């Protein structure tokens, strides 16, 4: 009788324990350090004919690298002034895009770690927009 009770506890306890541990890990997401994701920022956007120039600042203690630029949910071509962004450094990212005056654009930079930095351009017009 005692063996049967211990076996039931074991058969129920182990899966429930593993499920609980998985839930804690998924909630904590130790592989995603949000602290660094928000320390890289887009300070300004300059709209030129056929291009959007972003000024990116790294205020974190780690080197950052922009892997992708997403504009209105689409990956777009871009050029960087340097391949990686050292702590405290500033970089220009030029996005080749035929923007339309008066339209709004959602810009996201995806870093090599998968973190994203968001910026919104409202009512696009030629010139510079500050963050």
The secondary-structure class comes to alpha+beta
Shape: elongated
The average pLDDT score comes to 86
Describe the main β-sheet briefly: 5 strands, antiparallel
Helicity range:
10-25%
The proportion of residues in beta strands is 35-45%
Tally of DSSP helical segments: 2
The total count of strands amounts to: 9
Strand order across the largest sheet: 5-6-2-1-9
Distance between the termini: 70 Å
The succession of helices and strands, N to C, reads HHEEEEEEEEE
Quaternary assembly: single chain
What does it look like?
- It is a single chain.
- The chain has 131 residues and is α+β, with helices and mostly antiparallel strands.
- Helix content is 24%, strand content 40%.
- It has helices spanning 2-28, 34-37, and strands spanning 40-48, 51-58, 66-71, 74-76, 78-80, 90-96, 105-111, 116-121, 127-130.
- A hairpin with a 2-residue loop joins strand 3 and strand 4.
